[in-house]
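hey all, quick one before standup. I had two proteins in the batch that finished overnight and I want to keep them in one place so we stop losing track of which output belongs to which input. First protein below, input sequence then structure tokens straight from the run.
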Amino acid sequence: MISEERFQHYHAYARQRGVNWGLYLLARLILQPAFGVWLRLSRVGREHLRGIEGGLIIASNHRSFLDPFVIGTTLPWRRPMQYVAKVELFESRWRGWILSRVGAFPIRRGQSDETAMETARLVLDRGGTICIFPEGTRIRSGSLGTPKRGVGRLALETGAAVVPVAVHGSEQVRRGWRIRPRKVRLRVGRTMRFPRTEHPSPALAATVTGRIWPNVELQWEWLGGLPPLRKAAVIGAGSWGTAMAVLLARGGLDVQLGTRSQEKADEITAKRLNARYLPGVTLPDSVAIRRAGEIELAGVDLVCLAVPSAALPAAVGSLGDRIGSRAAVLMLTKGLVQPLGQLPSDYVGERIRSRAIASLGGPAHAREAAAGMAALVLGSSDRDLRAQLGEVFDRAGLICERSDDVVGVEMAGVAKNAASLGAAAAEAHGLNAAGIAAATIWRECVAYALASGAELDTFIGLAGVGDLTATVIAPGSRNRRAGELLGAGVAAEQIPGRIGQASEGLDSVPLLAEAMARAGIEAPGLDGLSALIEGSIDPGEWVAGLRRAERTRRAAA
């Protein structure tokens, strides 16, 4: 930690001297050709920097420690740029000396540093140039972060011109101490000006920042940077699809909810309510309800597939070509897909040219999720999508756990459906039978998931045991109700009509049993449950088979 005396010294130098011209010119003489050769630096829009009189604020995104130097070499030679840097960089005396002489001055991050703001104001008042990174810290991947209102406040207090700038690719240059040759691009936007205002209110400063930052995002997306999630389409207006539309709207997205028929779309639009699947939950104004076939999917950033596993092939067949390659897909399906028993993300990934796929797991009931009272697990192999969607769910008020174990998250959903279905089907023969059924099927599913590359931690967390517990004890659970009817002798094909919805467990168990047989994994519990669903044995035979399998397992152990 630097002393207060040194801290004030660096600020005094920035206010009075700005830069050491000899060192500044030497650094620029070295860095500019180096960036051109090593980074193949391209700079677009430099004409917007010419002819600006008085103070100038450069508002830029921040991906790498190189950003101030890349931006500095883009400015005219006679306009040296000063910028804030975290105070920790000044702890070493020699490094602090060099940084201060080439335009940097320290800021204490995480707190309102009025000293740094005063230095910036004084530099701008004398006609200097200040570079501000409104995100407040480096955002090394994904789309741009949320800006702080300081840049708006500074623009109002000084009346300085503001130029939006985006830097793309600089985050890939450094790995440890190595500086790798990577393509870096920079784009400069048009100058913006705001009237000078003494003591602007926080609300006014935030409003001006809200005018500046979209222009930075515009340059960023022109360079090919990942855009934020703005528009979403939810395909499937069941309980979970409706709840997801509510959550995404609450998280700040414009949402279209796709229904099967125009009549259903008109009914929900008129009432702002999906009375059949999610009664009592009012849809926000930012949710538009349309027939799924009429939604222009090429213009959305996120497509949510909220259809049962049995209906997924038809949905993908009708939608696949309409989804843009820059859109992400969020799977809400908990089951396996016919005919080969694939996980939903694998099935969709082979057929849709999306930029990334995520799956949702965890013990969330649709009504609780819509009320912001649920905990979810977001699984995706794409780190950027995990971050983007996680932030949306955070803003929506949910507890959102992120995971890169997509196989584990999806298999945990399959396992809890199968185990809860089996437990309910065996419950008529006693709680002991129900416990044996749940434990046997869960153990078999976990063995198959681990063999498929899943992580055990996923099954002992929210996506696994948490979801299983919530499903087993929920009186309105579809799989529990389906299991109870199955155990009472009702034919499997009649059950969806009885409960009014599809049961993922009924659809997935036969596929799962076949997949485990192909993988060479013994699964007497799932084999028996599959036979019960197919009608080749009765509930009593299945429970008796479960008890025999448990005795055999114990004897072998």
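OK second protein, same deal, sequence then tokens:
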Amino acid sequence: MAKRTPSVVLVGRPNVGKSTLFNRITGSRQAIVAPLPGTTRDALERTVTWRNTSFSLFDTGGLYGASEDPLHELVVVQGQRAIEGADLLVFVADGREGLVGGDQTIATELRATGRPILLAVNKFDDKRARDAALDFYRLGIDPVFEISAEHGTGVAEVLDAIVERLQAGGWHRDEPATESAPGPGLQPSAASGEIGVAFVGRPNVGKSSLVNRLLREERVLVSDMPGTTRDAIDSPLVWHRRRFRIVDTAGMRRPGKVSGGGAVEMVSVAGAKRAIADADVVVLVIDAATGASDQDAAIGGEVDRAGRGIVIVANKWDLVKDRGPDYSTVFDEATRHGMRFLDYAQILHISALTGERLPKVLETIDRIAQTRRVRVPTPALNKFVEAVTAANPPVSPGRKHVRILYAAQIGVAPPSFVFFTNVATTLHFSYERFLVNQLREKFGFVGTPIRIQVRRRADKGGGARRAKKTASAGQTGGRARPGGSGGPGKPRRPGKPRKKGKPGRKGVR
């Protein structure tokens, strides 16, 4: 049985700096930081290693205090669920505001859980926080750490106390022991062998519902309000002994609407694009009831340019079952028409609400992740090239006939190939597309883009011939008369006397 990692949860009122502390400890920018109370909604998780001890750090939304977020009640429920599964609680307070009634309420509820508690008074770089420091001892939590999450002051002392409390509770150091990276930030431990999967799409198409259904838990918030998800929430998943890292992202609207939606939405969309760049396979979720839109095609273009594997998932299929048995064919044709550049992507019809065809999603993701890393042997590749070019030779852009001499695979994820020709450095775009389709059909590259390059084969003897020609020109072309300004000229044969000039010739005395 796999060893469980202890969990440490950051709790506190809204806008006290929990997300800033989370980013500081994890050495990342995963949590969105903004001066707006209620920015964090879902519980973020990241694995941290400090003094050879690993633990999962959770950032939660504000539990009490003023919040303009209409989903604040759901955020509180999500935070309380994280507290129930915690092994250690870090209570973060705002030293600039001082001790308020909400802090006392949180302290009382945290003590009722029976979990060990650490108190971190944040924003201590402000003089107002230093003046109000003694008030926090009235909460009865010992010790009290005075920190500045923004500047990293006191964060190391908090991490030392976390490790001591975990070890006192029976959690042992990692084996084999490794030294932590120096500096105030930490590098999160990378999980090897995982398949990174990003769920992207427009707002309110059911990405979070689909993620919760796959994880079989209410990991991320779900509501009918568009834009519920803000942070990119990642969670591990094991399916048939295959390990996935599932990332739920914020809905991506058109750039014009994003710029008018405020700083939080701009950062959320940037996080979604970063999740695409970090993923192995991207699940593009579209609404089956409305069909694929131009924005869906734009998001698909981002995935294709990033070179990531992709599967198109039409969610809410339970709403269109009454449109007849042929609607699936009509829907797929319309989707292909709007996304011609994604003709290699498979389209799945699922329902996150009923769970219909959900196993097919993970099965397709796993197959795409494997095919993206297939490496074709060079002999088999060149045999394929010989057969394809014999049946359909490339079009000559000039007078000379273009021949593909040989090919080689130069990379995986995505599969990348280079074709060497006799004269051309480019092929017609239609022939390049033909080669890509033939490669996909022959070697089974499902759901992944293929990159190809065309190069002219270098002349093996051209360099030596040019050097020989240059040396010969230096000996003959630069010859000068004896005694002239152009140089010594042709050397005289040794032992042979110089000829005397005949009478009457110019220059003879």
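Flagging for whoever picks this up: The chain has 14 helices and 15 strands. The CA atoms of residues 503 and 509 lie 8 Å apart.
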